[in-house]
Amino acid sequence: MNLFKALCLVLLLISQAAYAGKTFDAIKKRGEIKCGVTTGIPGFSVPDSKGKWTGIDVDVCRAVAAAMFGNPEKVTFVPLSSQQRFTAIQSGEVDLLSRVTTHTLSRDTSLGLNFAPVTYYDGQAFMVRKSDGIKSAKDLNGATVCVQQGTTTELGLADYFRANRMKFKSVVYEANDEVAQAFVKKRCDAFTTDASGLAAERTRFKNPSQYIILPEVISKEPLAPAVRHGDDKWFDIVKWTVYALLEAEEMGMTSSNVDGFKKSKDPNIKRFLGVTKGNGKALGLSETWAYNIVKKVGNYSEIFEKNIGKKTSLKLERGLNALWKDGGIMYAPPLR
Amino acid sequence: MEERTPFWQDPKKRSLVYQGVTLAIVGGVGYYLFKNTQANLTRQNIASGFGFLSQEAGFDISESVIDYFSDESYGKALKVGFLNTLKVSVVGNVFAVLLGGLVGILSISSNWLVSRISRGYVEMVRNVPLLLQLFFWYTLFSEIFPSVRQAYNPMPGVFVSNRGVVIPAFEAHPVWTWVLLTILGTVVVIIPLIFSWGKKQKEEFGIERPTEWIMGAALILLPLIVWMIGGMPTKFEVPSLQGFNFKGGFTLSPEYISLLLGLVLYTGAFIAEIVRAGILSVNKGQWEASEALGLSGWRTLTLVIIPQALRVIIPPLTSQLLNLTKNSSLAVAIAYPDFVSVANTSLNQTGQAIEMVGLIMLVYLTFSLTTSFAMNWYNKKIKLTER
Predict the structure, then answer these.
(1) Domains along chain A with CATH numbers
(2) Which of these, A33, A73, A92, A63, lies nearest to A293 by C-alpha position?
(3) Do A14 and B335 touch (CB under 8 A)?
């Protein structure tokens, strides 16, 4: 029962010794990272047929593990519902929340979280049945909309209809699967979540071609990994792991060609790969941390294309998530 | 001179010391947990306190007894959830007792078929987890009923689809509130008064008054008078399909119907067992004595057996009523916006887990204590009085 789990997490929050060891030290000692992911959203975090977790959020966790331990498999994945996620990260049940979580002001402050750089720029959209003849979100006046509990989309939905002076009825489910099921069974006229999430769910429907995603994107949903307040060292590692993924793409390094770069004379590349020492020590990691990320997990583009890109069933374009020099807004500060 | 016993040899004083020590330990642990939590929250910069209750909630709630809009406060949203829990548990308890009572009596019937069907229902329902049953009813609802545009129309103005059952309703008018209040007042105040008057008449003067008739008349006439004074509004609102959904009328959502059905059937099975046990606990001699006096089967049951069985039935029945109320928190699984569901959403949007879980516990404690207080009072009333 979820309430029971929530209760346990609260108890954990209450009973955790006030000045427990820092997250970084605890992870080092434990030898692996506990990473909070979804209970299953294709392309972001979902177990495959062999039970191995895959997805862009999952690979971010693996990249952090590669940076810390040189081994991307030193991660335990903890599936969390959208309601459990914050209590789980606050209470120390997980070290890192990499779970399609939108970065907002209130989460950054009153929830006691620190958000690492955005790993996927998303926006909330609606999916409807083709046969209903709806062409725009503006046609949804009076509609019943299915939405998942405790998400920013639940708020975005109410805001959008309020701003456009339209009426709606929401049906709120605890789990993403239930939302999708209810939509397919026509309990509601529209299904709303992040556009990527809609694309992901649609791949699981029986007849994906019978559903369309409406063109309006009604909110900004920057999805970012988060850690709890209280250990800046750990926060830095997560932050710079994400930047390293972007930087590697910008430098043209991939998991297959990274070894060739080791002989490069470019000072930026030498610093990045740890040939010139300094970055690793500053982060409290080995000097080959960034090399390990690229070698064992890949760069941002590799992760993107493998999990949600055009060759996958989600078929998502890079769009905003392209590097800054390719017309997107992905940008890493200098790694020096 | 009397010799003073040292205090450790005085059992009274000794037990006082034990109790003091226990109290100090419990208090100390409680204080430590409280301080520790506070320190943890401050260290992680997590907001605390109940200030968020007056902030704008910003989310919609699918059904509500009172008017609610997404720009209202968390406090109001929680109130909506509270009333939704009340709506399902009060109605559910009434139906569960009726169903359980009926099945309990039927299962000791001498009719082979009737008693077997009752027993079969009890055994089947009681042994399947409630959550599964809720999923079953909810799925059934969306599978067997058509989509809103192909809604069944069994009677004029009544529509059944997988979005729920829509029935015509009286148009909103202030009189209806008063009529409802009158009905409530009659049930809570006037009927018990008539009952005790009738009892007194019988005990003191030996006169049998037709109390059932007077009660029935009061229940019908009093609201009718209020309705007539209020101007006799008769306007009906007939639901019609407009755009995506039915407009007008009164909607029973599939979530509410499945939850109510699931809770009533599940708890009803347990109550049936309690009622059966209660009736069987009455000595066989009572049946025979009653028969010897020439009482009919029905009068034997209502005048002799059930009053004695109630003493056995009431205490376990109380825990079943409490169970139904607590089980209604499973609503969240099938999208019914009960208190736990709304509290979960609020918890997630504000992140104030400790406060919200505290509130949830407080609310269920209040529900439970109120129910058990009422049932204990009733239990005391019906216990064996010797004259």
Answers:
(1) 2-119+224-242+300-317 (3.40.190.10), 123-220 (3.40.190.10)
(2) A63
(3) no
Distance from CA of B220 to the nearest CA of A (A): 36
Average pLDDT over residues B225-234: 81
Helices then strands (H, E): number in chain A?
14, 13
Residues in chain A within 8 Å Cβ distance of B353: 6, 9-10, 13, 86-87, 90
Contact between chains at B347 and A10 (C-beta distance less than 8 A): no
Determine the Cα–Cα distance for residues A316 and A309; give it in Å rounded to an integer.
5
Contact (CB<8Å) A171/B33? no
Question: Which burial class, exposed, middle or buried, applies to B381 when counting CB atoms under 10 A from its CB (0-12, 13-18, 19+)?
Answer: exposed
How many Cβ atoms sit within 10 Å of the Cβ of residue A14?
A: 18
Using a CB–CB cutoff of 8 Å, tell me whether B353 touches chain A: yes
B58: left (phi over 0), alpha (psi -120 to 50) or beta: left
- Rounded Cα distance, A219 and A213, in Å: 15
User: Which tokens go with A137?
Assistant: 């979100």
Q: Which domains does chain B have, with CATH numbers?
A: 74-149+253-382 (1.10.3720.10)
Residue contact A141–B243, C-beta within 8 A: yes
Buried b (16+ CB within 10 A) or exposed e, B220-253: eebbeebbeeeeeeeeebbbeeeebbbebbebeb
Rg (CA), chain A: 21
Q: ipTM for the complex?
A: 0.78
Tokens of A146: 């299915």
> Among candidates A155, A156, A160, A115, which has minimal Cα distance to A140?
A160
Give the residue among B331, B330, B325 at the shortest CA–CA distance from B374: B325
What the block records as the tokens of A273 is 């790969």
What is the tens place of the pLDDT at every residue in A120-165? 999 999 999 999 889 999 999 989 999 998 888 999 999 999 999 9
